[in-house]
């Protein structure tokens, strides 16, 4: 019975090892990518933030669903607040629409109500901070 001799080139062993390691890394990356995709950034519920206008607080509510911001609403202003802050109602409508559409408070404010918009965005950020996981 004759012995058989196998000749293995080191270059072939190294190539095979590198491809095996790369394959394992790619499979691990795919698993990690898809396993974290069903987590949302927020907990479901309605979260409130207060805005002080004319010494009285006005509640801003942000409702968060399973994976998204669903609605943003502002408590109705009293007569005095409406007189001193006439742009709040129109501003909240526009801002809430943009925030819900983009799912982010990183929006560009209209030049007509930059101050009002920044007050509302701060309140929305505050409510979303409560909803963060």
Summarize the structure in words.
This protein is α+β, with helices and mostly antiparallel strands and 133 residues long. The chain contains 4 helices and 3 strands, in the order H-E-E-E-H-H-H. The chain has helices at residues 10-35, 79-84, 88-102, 114-131, and strands at 45-53, 56-64, 69-74. A 3-stranded antiparallel sheet has the order 1-2-3, with helices on one face. It is rod-shaped, with a radius of gyration of 28 Å. It starts with 9 loop residues before the first helix and ends with a helix.
The shape is rod-shaped
Estimate the helix proportion, in percent.
40-55%
Order of helices and strands: HEEEHHH
Helices and strands: which structural class? alpha+beta
Largest sheet: 3 strands, antiparallel
- Average of per-residue pLDDT values: 86
Helix count, DSSP H or I runs of 4 or more residues: 4
Low-confidence stretches: none
Distance linking N and C termini = 70 Å
Rg, nearest Å = 28 Å
Major sheet: arrangement of strands: 1-2-3
Beta-strand share of residues: 15-25%
Count of beta strands: 3
Summarize the helices and strands and which ones pair or pack.
Blueprint: H1 10-35, E1 45-53, E2 56-64, E3 69-74, H2 79-84, H3 88-102, H4 114-131
Antiparallel strand pairs: 1-2, 2-3
Helix pairs in contact: 3-4
Summarize this entry quickly.
The protein is an alpha+beta fold and 133 residues long. The protein has four helices and three strands; from the N terminus they run αβββααα. The mean pLDDT is 86.
